[in-house]
Amino acid sequence: MYEIKIFDGHNVEVIEVNGNILFNPYNVGECLGINEVTVRRHIQKMNGKQVVKLRNSEVHNMNIRKLNNAGVIFL
Length: 75
Hints:
Blueprint: E1 2-7, E2 10-17, E3 20-23, H1 25-32, H2 36-44, E4 52-54, E5 72-74
Antiparallel strand pairs: 1-2, 2-3, 4-5
Helix pairs in contact: 1-2
């Protein structure tokens, strides 16, 4: 599953990988009024159960946008 949901007037990227629902942290931060720098700082403090880094090779069979070669973080 790959969808763009609208939450309080903001687009939020939502994907399902291996039965886990993941959210784009920058979209979530925008909904909460948190800037990208602050979101990045909080992501650095999170552990592997709180964030997932996805690469194109891991989602190549899914209907999802092309990800950054270094990977993209999701919550």
